[in-house]
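Please check what follows.
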Amino acid sequence: MMDMYSVRDLRERTGELIRDAETGELSVVTKQGRPVFIAVPFDEKVLESGIPMARAIKLYQEKVLSMGKAAQFAGCPVAEFIQHLVKAGIPSVRYSSDELDAELAAIG
């Protein structure tokens, strides 16, 4: 889940913003209710993949973006985005147990 901070919050809640980053959470900073920037945790994913890809992976993982939108956000084709998900150990297919049972029943 992404936390939102106003510019005013930065003075009063800086510690929270830093704790969010340390736990891998993205945070949005707003000014007068409009997003100004996203605080992205600095970790191995950022070093390996770059900020756009790491941000897209995180937003996909948090179910903020669909696969297609996340790939677009990262600036790459879906197939390449899936490869990045695999490398990060994140499932590229999301099925609930009911959906999976229905798919398996349809196959066999």
